[in-house]
Amino acid sequence: MHHHAYLWTGPKQRFDQEALRRPPHPEPPPAGSRPELIQRYREVAAEFPTSDLPPLETAYWLIKPRPLVRGTWGEAKEAATWLGEQLAQHGPRFASHAERDIARLARLVDSAVEHLAAGVDVSYGFYLERPSYLSIALVTCSPNAAAPQLPCPVGE
Questions:
Q1: Direct distance between the N- and C-terminal alpha carbons of the chain, in angstroms, rounded to an integer
Q2: What is the pLDDT of residues 107-134, one digit of tens each?
Q3: Per residue in 26-84, pLDDT tens?
Q4: How many Å apart are CA 50 and CA 17, to the nearest integer?
Q5: pTM of the predicted model over 0.90
């Protein structure tokens, strides 16, 4: 098992486009469906795998384009160290003063080590100054416990 890191920052409005953050239904709309429903399905089916938007289900980062992987580690502690670095870098921009608390951020990193070591994905989100959003995820791979059918984005 190893862990892949993902990070996204951007306008909160874009993050709120939930249809593009959800994988398309495995079956397309039935023949005779409204044209706008068919068109929307096609858009989502084409955009979801290539979009840099964080998926609603953390495991689905694994099907996103390989360049979105910010790092890969075999050890949970190494992956959590990256997380800590990201929290330290972005923390001063957190919209909530309480979320900037160093002790709280350290607890998030410690918790991430435990979760990753157990094969559980870690995903955090923070509102940033301006109407922006930060999404940070560490995803277990080979296999992913939540979605073992998903392939490793960087190969074995």
A1: 10
A2: 999 999 999 999 999 999 999 988 899 9
A3: 899 999 999 999 998 999 899 999 999 999 999 999 999 999 999 999 999 999 999 99
A4: 15
A5: yes
Nearest residue to 147 (alpha-carbon basis) of 12, 10, 23: 23
Question: Which residues face 125 on adjacent strands?
Answer: 135
In sequence order, the β-bridge partners of residue 126 are 134
Distances (CA, A) of 91 to 17, 86, 138: 24, 8, 18
DSSP notation for the chain: -EEEEEEEEEEHHHHT-GGGGSPPPSSPPPTT--HHHHHHHHHHHHHTTT--SPPSSGGGGGGS-GGG--EEESSHHHHHHHHHHHHHHHGGGBSSTGGG-HHHHHHHHHHHHHHHHTT--EEEEEEETTTEEEEEEEEEESS-SS-TTSPPTT--
